[in-house]
Amino acid sequence: MPARHGDTVAVEYEGRLEDGSVFDSSAGRAPLLFAIGAGDVLPMFESAVIGLEVGGAVTVTIPAEEAYGPYVAEARQVVPVDVFGEAEPPLDAHFNVIGDDGESYTGRVVEISPDRVNVTVDFNHPLAGHTLTFDITLVEHHPARE
């Protein structure tokens, strides 16, 4: 029976960037478990699984606009290091801030100025601006209850 909307599935996968480098993989971990239609994975990733049967495999390429969006230069900001308190923030550290609109945003420290006065923070998703290619294999399929 092929996987369809509402079913719970487990997949093994490998995700690659445009240059072929692997950015994520289920290798050595439990398969990724999700319900089709729940919105827990990228929509095109989810759509690629629909119609697969256990053991079936597919490769899907997801353009940046359908994945984590384009890279937005304005989402990269320089802020005083003292906004982080007493401790110097480590490079690549992730943190959340509440914006003026009340929304929560995740930022990542990408640079600390040589004089240790300013920090460059990137609020883009780390995969923003990248076309993503996934090799997906369906390893478990649990049909939705009718």
Provide a short characterization of the protein structure.
The chain has 146 residues and is mainly beta.
Description of the structure:
The chain is mainly beta. The protein folds into two domains: 77 residues, Chitinase A, domain 3, CATH 3.10.50; 50 residues, Thrombin, subunit H (Beta Barrel). It is elongated. The two termini are 15 Å apart.
Structural key phrases:
mainly beta; five-stranded antiparallel β-sheet; 146 residues; Thrombin, subunit H; four-stranded antiparallel β-sheet; 1 helix; 2 domains; Chitinase A, domain 3
> In terms of structural class, how would the helical and strand content be classed?
mainly beta
Mean pLDDT: 94
Summarize the main sheet.
5 strands, antiparallel
* Number of continuous helical runs: 1
Report Rg. 19 Å
Q: What's the SSE pattern?
A: EEEHEEEEEE
CATH fold-level assignment of the largest domain: Chitinase A, domain 3
